[in-house]
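Q: Predict the assembly, please.
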Amino acid sequence: MSDTQPKAAALTITAARVIVTCPGRNFVTLKIETGTGAGASYGLGDATLNGRELSVASYLTDHIIPTLIGRDAHQIEDIWQYLYRGAYWRRGPVTMTAIAAVDMALWDIKAKAAGMPLYQLLGGACRTGVRVYGHANGESIEETIAEAQRYRQMGYTAIRLQAGVPGLPTTYGVSRDKMYYEPADGALPTENRWSTSKYLPSVPKLFEAARAALGWDVDLLHDVHHRLTPIEAARLGRDLEPYRLFWLEDSVAAENQANFRLIRQHTTTPLAVGEVFNSIWDCKDLIEGQLIDYIRTTVVHAGGITHLRRIASLADLYAVKTGCHGATDLSPVCMAAALHFNLSIPNFGLQEYMRHTSETDAVFPHAYSFANGFLHPGNEPGLGVDIDEPLAAKYPYKRAYLPVNRLEDGSMTNW
Ligand code: GCO
Ligand code: MG
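A: Predicted assembly structure:
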């Protein structure tokens, strides 16, 4: 490298640490500190991987943090490449969540140094707000529709509908507490039962009733949570066509991206996938083949803002829009980062918004706010989210697993 160029002032990383807290559910947060005295600053990154929290905490503490000290926090791309290429072992949810946490914290620091909300550094706002969808669910179709009406009254213009399946004691997406859905419910994994033949006929009935009750001036969504085979998903997509879904999510598992080619041949119902993906390589074929309409990767699980921008740019070439994952297990730090990203990219589609409890909001004071079906990240410098460390310390880590799922004959299947 030539040393003839004058050097920009560095923002030296002086310390970094991981904060694990459980204000009702577990969150892992990375705090990176820069400078000293009056010039000191810090940034935050979400590192929460539901049910596997401590593995990311260890990856950061034991393997990443020692390599960060002394680096220039301004060099976001170089640090990203250093952590990705430099690990030799690439990709995977633990690695990519840890890299994402560093990336988020560095963008937070850079935007604070610039004195701007992060979206300004990402190119500025392309829209006035970030449209979000909420979750209406109930044991019965009637209960689910009543919930959807409640969401309409709160101002939501897009709503995900999940109802209980007759003959199954529990199912994904139907929660005891209507406003704060929390699937990680056991110190050991709870075992659920699944029957595709019971589920499949129940979904068109739900959406037929929903259109009759709610009309057409609202976007409706549904999440299958990876439970069908490609041909079953194709059939469901076709059966749902009369109800014009905004998207049908995770209808199949996507390790084999070619699954979606089969579904796509049979239905015009828009398809969304990707909340469990962690790199651009997981969605490359889906995007280039125009096999999906919405890519669900989000900041915390897909390598941070730096990598998610790359995914969105690829998707934009193929008319695929973003639909970032936004469940409660993604902390307010991730939600803030996603909002700055969503506000600044051309091909934003829709953002999921599952509200956090007041306990969680108190641990993570934030500038983003909801009005009329939209979220806005606010205009504080950086991400606009903080962590109240003394309060966080009052909620120690509590092991919690996502459920597992078995067919009625006892075989393991996808949850
Ligand atoms: C969604 C998701 C979540 C996941 C959860 C797992 O679409 O919101 O499917 O509800 O199940 O994030 O940790
Ligand atoms: Mg989902």
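The pocket of magnesium ion (ligand 2) is lined by residues 223, 225, 249-250, 275 (CB under 6 Å). The longest helix spans residues 93-114.
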